Amino acid sequence: MKTIVAALASVLMTSAAFAVEPVGSDTFNTDPGFDLSSLDASNFYSVIEPMAKEEGTLTFFDFTNSFGPLFSEHLIPEFEAKYGITVDYVRGDNDAAVQQLIAAHNAGSPAPADAYFIGSGAIGNLMSESVMANIPLIKLLPNADTFDEMIATVTRGFEHGGSYLPFHRNQTSILYDTRVVSADEVPTDLDGLLAWAKAHPQQFIVTSPKGGGSGSGFLQSVAYAKVTDPACKAGLVNYKLSDDEAKALVAKPCMQPVWDYYKELLPVVELTNGNSDTLNLVATGAGVIGTAWEDMAYDFMGRGLLPPTSRQELVVTGQVGGGDGMFFPVDGEHPAAGLLFLDFMMGHDVQLQKLQINGSRSARLDIDPAQSFTPEQVARLIPTDQFMSRALESMPNNVNSALGEYFVANLLRQ
């Protein structure tokens, strides 16, 4: 599995929209009012903390719905209590916030926020418009010292050198109910899932690739496992493909094993139009195994919306996931406070708390739920050894979209 991950990672690399300078450089695309070239992890707190406290406040933007309680009830109050700095917490639409930031920058106005939590799909735009500071935060922030280097420096094919911090990691999974199928009996590979589905018609609940991320993630995972042609496999992670090239790729003969798999699978599964629909069918006993998101299933189990006998796994050939991150804007009004806030959010205890409350994985390499969580909480997650060895990066957006469109046009409508 590590060989597969390494091979996919090598193809993910593309030319960045700007060059990220190492710590100690005097070439940055932002001037926060203090000397970035002399700042490093060893002097970060002695330099930044006094200035941040003098600024006294910062604005933080969050694009999510699900993280609102985590930030407002836990993380932000903890930051304010630790540093005495007030946080103006703003939530809103991801794309609108990016466009607002770009417009402010082009107008020579201050950035609307001092720290941003933005979806990873926007990273190309952030880089090309030069509104994300090209500071290698992964090297500068003391709390970012144990992050997986690949995840922390490359996002959706863009090499940013650590300027986009991996705050949240999500992961697709296979969910099953141990009241019906035990951990020893649940299929651990795609062919086993197909065989099980044939033996138990309509008991494997699969989200449609055009209806929810767990479905498109499952389709990508099938493609990673079933496509063997090297050129075709490389195309699946080629971020330079145009939309037309992505559509042409998924229709090539080398993709046929993927569609053959689904042609056998679809007649014997229940296809849903959304992630919640899939989990609800498992919860009510209308299904036994289903495609899922780890964090969503974790949350459903914690709230009693799924039975406590539910468990999650990753198939041995791997399943896709992704994540979203935080960054430092080029024109923030409170730069020191913004940097201190970003450092706090990367900390071990914060990342662990995020996982405990939201089921949101971390790119830190020193997070082990078994050491800090209750057995019940650990049981709600994918086994950590599987997460560490079987998680795969999602494909480029246009390849994922092309896969879904082909699925609908050539399998569902036939």
Describe the largest sheet: 10 strands, mixed
User: What fraction of residues sit in β-strands?
Assistant: 5-15%
CATH C-level of the largest domain: Alpha Beta
What's the average pLDDT? 92
Structural class: alpha/beta
The backbone outline, from C-alpha atoms, is globular
CATH architecture of the largest domain: 3-Layer(aba) Sandwich
Terminal Cα separation, in Å?
35 Å
Poorly predicted ranges (pLDDT <50, ≥5 residues)? Answer: 1-18
Number of domains: 2
Instruction: Say what the CATH topology of the largest domain is.
Output: D-Maltodextrin-Binding Protein, domain 2
Radius of gyration over alpha carbons? 22 Å
The total strand number stands at 12
Secondary structure: helix percent: 40-55%
Relevant CATH superfamily of the largest domain: Periplasmic binding protein-like II
Structure write-up:
It is a single chain. Helix content is 45%, strand content 15%. With 414 residues, the protein is of the alpha/beta class. It has 2 domains: 13-169 and 323-374, 3-Layer(aba) Sandwich (D-Maltodextrin-Binding Protein, domain 2); 171-321 and 379-412, Periplasmic binding protein-like II (D-Maltodextrin-Binding Protein, domain 2, 3-Layer(aba) Sandwich), CATH 3.40.190.10. Strands 1, 2, 3, 6, 7, 8, 9, 10, 11 and 12 form a 10-stranded mixed sheet that branches. A two-stranded antiparallel sheet has the order 4-5. α3 links the parallel β1 and β2. α2 packs across α15 and α11 packs across α20. The protein is globular.
